[in-house]
Write a structure and sequence with these properties.
Layout lengths: L6 E3 L2 E3 L2 E5 L8 E5 L5 E3 L9 E4 L6 E3 L6 E3 L4 E8 L4 E5 L5 E3 L1 H6 L5 E2 L17 E6 L2 E8 L3 E6 L13 H6 L2 E6 L16 H15 L4 E6 L1 H12 L4 E7 L14 H15 L3 H9 L2 H11 L8 H8 L7 H9 L7 H4 L7 E6 L11 H8 L4 E6 L6 H4 L1 H14 L1
Parallel strand pairs: 4-8, 7-11, 15-16, 15-17, 17-18, 18-19, 19-20
Antiparallel strand pairs: 1-2, 3-6, 3-12, 4-9, 5-10, 8-11, 9-10, 13-14, 14-16
Helix pairs in contact: 3-4, 5-6, 7-8
C-alpha cells in the first residue's frame, strides 16, 4: 500500500488528524463509509498530556446527515468502525474518503476539532474472514454469528452447506463499497454459530432468517444465496415476502437432500444404506472424520471448482475449522438425512419478487441444466434474469468474484 503523506508524527506518515477530547468520544461503535480503500491506525501512542487523542480519517469534506445519526457515509464506499476501547484508553478509527459525511450525533462528539488532509492510497488489501467484525445474536437459546458492513439498502448473504460467512469474503467489501448494507449470517449448525442438537430442516433456517431480519433490518432486503443458501432465499421470498425485496440465486440447490424419485432404484438403495451409516453413533463418526479431513475437503473442492488455483489453504481451513466444534458430527448426520424441503419447481409459481439467477456453467453438483426451470418461469411472466458464468463451478462468487460481483451490482442498480 503506497501513501502520499501530508505530515509526519513520531516518524509515522499521516494524512488526516482530528483532535478529539476524550470526553466527547462515544461509548459505542460508529460506522464510517468512505470511497476508495482503507487504512487502520492504532493511536494510543499519540495520546497527549492534555487528554486528547489524534484520530485519523481520510477525508476532505465533512457534511452533516440527519438521516444517519451517528453514521459517517459517502457514495460507493466501504463501512468501517470507530471503536472506543475504554478498558485500554484507546480509540481506533478506520476510515477513508474524499467526501466523508458525518451524522449530527457524531458531529457532536467531534465538535471543536481540527481537520487536516489528504492521502492517496493506490492499492487495496485483500479481505480475509478475520477482517470482518463478528457479532453474536441469541436465537431460541442458540448463539448465531453474523457480520455487517456498509450503509444503504440491505442485502442478506446466505451460505451453502458446510460454508460460513467467510465464503463471502470476496463479495462483502465490494457490495458494501457499492453502497449497500451487507449482512452475512452463519446458519445454525455452521461456521461460528452453535452446533445445536436438533433435527435440521430448511424450515428451521427459514425461520432463523425471518427472525434475524425482524431483529436487525427495518426494511425489505435482497437475499443472496449460494447452493442451499439460494434455495433458502427462494423460500423466504415465497413464504415471507414482507421482508424480501428480491433474490439473487447462485447455483441454487434443488433440495436439502435427494428426493426418492430423483434417484434410480440402485442409487436409491445405496443412498438409503449410506444414510444408515451416517445416522449410526459409531459408523457415523467414522464417516464424518473421513469426510472432514483437510485432504478430503481439498479433493471435494477440486470437483466443484473449475479453477484449482481458487482452492486455497484459506478456503480449506474455512470449511475444516467449524467441523472441529463439538456437535458438528451430529449436525452433519441430521442434515444429510433431513427432508429435502420444497423444490424450486414448487416455489417459482408463487414468487412475486424479482430474481437474478447466476449459474456457474461447469458445476457438476447442480448442473446448469437446472436453470431451465427458471427460464420456464420467466416465460410464464416472472421477473427473472439468468446469467450463466463460463469456466466456473458450484461457487462462482468465490471462484470468479469479480465477474459475479459486477453482475450483482449491475442488477441491484436496475432493480
Amino acid at each position: 500500500m503506497k501513501i502520499t503523506p501530508i505530515f509526519i508524527i513520531n516518524g509515522v506518515s499521516f494524512i488526516a488528524g482530528i483532535e478529539v477530547t476524550t470526553a466527547f468520544l462515544p461509548q459505542s461503535n460508529h460506522h464510517f463509509k468512505c470511497s476508495n480503500f482503507y487504512l487502520s491506525f492504532p493511536i494510543n501512542r499519540f495520546a497527549s498530556s492534555n487528554n486528547k487523542l489524534r484520530v485519523l480519517a481520510m477525508c476532505s469534506t465533512l457534511k452533516p446527515n440527519s438521516n444517519n445519526l451517528g453514521i459517517a457515509s459517502c457514495r460507493a464506499c466501504f463501512g468501517y468502525r470507530a471503536k472506543t476501547l475504554t478498558q485500554l484508553g484507546l480509540v481506533e478509527i478506520i476510515a477513508f474518503c474524499s467526501d466523508l459525511i458525518l451524522g449530527q450525533r457524531t458531529l457532536i462528539y467531534l465538535r471543536n476539532t481540527l481537520l487536516i488532509f489528504i492521502m492517496t492510497v493506490t492499492t487495496q488489501p485483500l479481505a480475509t474472514p478475520d477482517a470482518f467484525e463478528k457479532f453474536f445474536w441469541t436465537w431460541q437459546g442458540y448463539k448465531i454469528q453474523y457480520t455487517v458492513m456498509g450503509i444503504g439498502r440491505p442485502l442478506v448473504l446466505v451460505h451453502g452447506f458446510g460454508a460460513s460467512i467467510g465464503h463471502w469474503r470476496k463479495n462483502i467489501p465490494v457490495l458494501a463499497n457499492a453502497g449497500y448494507q451487507v449482512f452475512a449470517i452463519d446458519l445454525l449448525g455452521f461456521g461460528g454459530s452453535d452446533k445445536a442438537p436438533i433435527d435440521y430442516s430448511v424450515e428451521v433456517w427459514v425461520e432463523l432468517l425471518k427472525d434475524f431480519c425482524t431483529a436487525h433490518i427495518n426494511e425489505p432486503a435482497v437475499f443472496i444465496g449460494n447452493s442451499i443458501g439460494a434455495l433458502l432465499s427462494l423460500i423466504v421470498l415465497v413464504e415471507h415476502p414482507e421482508i424480501a425485496a428480491g433474490g439473487i440465486l447462485i447455483n441454487s440447490a434443488g433440495g436439502l437432500s435427494h428426493r426418492p424419485h430423483e434417484l434410480n432404484p440402485p442409487l436409491r438403495m445405496v443412498m438409503a444404506t449410506f444414510n444408515q451409516f451416517v445416522r449410526s453413533p459409531i459408523t457415523g463418526k467414522l464417516v464424518f472424520n473421513r469426510i472432514r479431513q483437510k485432504a478430503q475437503i481439498r479433493r471435494t473442492l477440486y470437483q466443484v471448482y473449475k479453477n484449482r488455483e481458487a482452492v486455497t489453504d484459506e478456503l480449506v481451513d474455512l470449511l475444516y475449522t467449524p467441523s472441529c466444534d463439538q456437535g458438528a458430527q451430529q449436525v452433519f448426520a441430521s442434515i444429510l438425512t433431513a427432508p429435502p424441503g420444497p423444490s424450486p419447481e414448487e416455489l417459482l409459481p408463487k414468487v412475486e419478487r424479482p430474481l437474478l439467477v447466476i449459474w456457474g456453467a461447469d458445476d457438476p453438483w447442480t448442473p446448469i441444466t437446472g436453470a431451465k426451470i427458471y427460464e420456464k418461469a420467466r416465460e410464464n411472466g416472472k421477473e427473472i434474469k439468468i446469467v450463466p458464468i463460463p469456466n466456473a463451478g458450484h461457487c462462482p462468487h468465490d471462484e470468479v468474484p469479480d465477474v459475479v460481483n459486477a453482475q450483482i451490482v449491475d442488477w441491484l442498480a436496475q432493480s
